[in-house]
Design a protein that fits this description.
Radius of gyration: 17 Å
Shape: elongated
Oligomer: single chain
Order of helices and strands: HHEEEHHH
Structural class: mainly alpha
Number of domains: 1
Largest sheet: 3 strands, antiparallel
Strand content: 5-15%
Number of strands: 3
Number of helices: 5
Distance between the termini: 40 Å
Helix content: 25-40%
Amino acid sequence: MSEHFLLSTNAHTLSLKSIMPMSDDEAHAKFEAIRFAENGGAAFYRSCECTKVYTYRAHKIWKCAACLRQFSVTSGTKFASRKLPIRDYLAAIAIFVNAVKGISALQRGRDLDVRYKMAFVLARKIAKPSARIGTASS
């Protein structure tokens, strides 16, 4: 009999204990590795599928060599216009995926030290599937 996925070692890749002591640079690198996992963690521009990108030294953004558009690790995601540090978004994702029966927005707000409204919006962003992914609309 196989074990449940949540009991396997693959489910323990994103834990609060590993995220909370991270610096902003470490959290950005982790988010980058997760976001661009299909390219081995290396950044690429999704719109034109160009893997050759230029890195800016001053900011944590890239520029596509083919179409010359700038993008960040959160471009094209639900976190594109983010207000919180990237580490807090990783922590919110970890709380969501590790809570088997779900977690209230009030508790999430307490855990992340944000207001209830921000925790509610964050929960909706994480839990609600993207319009681009899923079945065709009727």
